[in-house]
Amino acid sequence: MPTAQETTLEIDLKALKHNYNYLKSKLQKNTHFMAVVKAYSYGHDAKIIANYLQDLKVDYFAVAYTSEGIALRDAGITKPIMVLHPQPTSFKELMARCLEPSLYNSKVLHEFIAIAESEGQNTYPIHLKFNTGLNRLGFSEYDVKGIASILSHTNAVGVKSIFSHMAASEDLNEKEFTLNQIKTFKAIAKDFTETLGFKPMLHMCNTSGILNYPEAHFDMVRSGIGLYGFGNSEEENHNFQPIGTLKSVISQIHHIKKGETVGYNRAFKADKFQKTATIPIGHADGIGRQYGNGKGFVTIHGKQAPIVGNVCMDMIMVNITDIDCKEGDEVIIFGQQPTASEFAQTANTISYEILTAISQRVKRVIIE
Ligand SMILES: *Cc1c(COP(=O)(O)O)cnc(C)c1O
Question: What pTM value is reported for the model?
Answer without folding.
Answer: 0.97
